[in-house]
Amino acid sequence: DHIDLKVAARLGIQVANIPSYSPESIAEHALTLMLALCRNIFPAHQQMMNYNFALDQLVGTTIRNKTVGVVGFGQTGQAVVEILRGFKCRILVADTKDFSEECKAFGAQQVELEVLYKESEIITFHVPLTKDTSYMVNVKSIEQMKDGVMLINVSRGAVFNSIDVYNALQRDKISKLGMDVYEFENHVFFFDHTNNPVDDQLLKAFIQHPNVLLTPHQAFLTREALEVVAERTIYSLNQFLEKGGLS
What we know:
Blueprint: H1 5-10, H2 23-38, H3 41-49, E1 67-71, H4 75-84, E2 90-94, H5 100-105, E3 109-110, H6 113-119, E4 122-125, H7 139-143, E5 149-153, H8 162-170, E6 174-179, H9 201-208, E7 212-214, H10 223-243
Parallel strand pairs: 1-2, 1-4, 2-3, 4-5, 5-6, 6-7
Helix pairs in contact: 2-4
């Protein structure tokens, strides 16, 4: 979503991408958000900074025995499911392709998206941003979900209709929200705004909400992933130099 491919093609500029680099990094970040929200880690840390050691507001929940929905069963979704197996939870998967047999090998069950929404207590999204997935989480789909559902998004910000999600948070339809992406993150994320305040009231509302954990699009950012990115970038450049183009 950063490059106008039609203009690049018209100008004869070749474009290469790296479609997969350490899906485990992104999967582990999704689980990090999930666990931190379940166990109120961020509020606990804030309390500790003020030397407040009271436990009254820190009662959490376990993932064990919960129904967790994984939307998207690509490489990252599969990595998430593989980790979730260790938590002894019920895992539901929704995808436009038939992965029912593969899901069985992971101890998961593939279901229709509406069923996943209806039965899951935690839902994590691992889909690309397309015309079909844009705003797939909206006021209508949120109403299909359980009251008090937890949502995790480490895919693309516009998979969520941010205003609908925030409104659902305000009325406790969504109890906890973990996001590594934000619909309007362009020109905001990846930059230091310490001395240049961000003028986005919705983003500020998410950041300040006690039941939201927001990270700055860092799910991919591990040493292992960066090594893969470097290696495959060099490979693409070598192909261009040696063959006069990208295959």
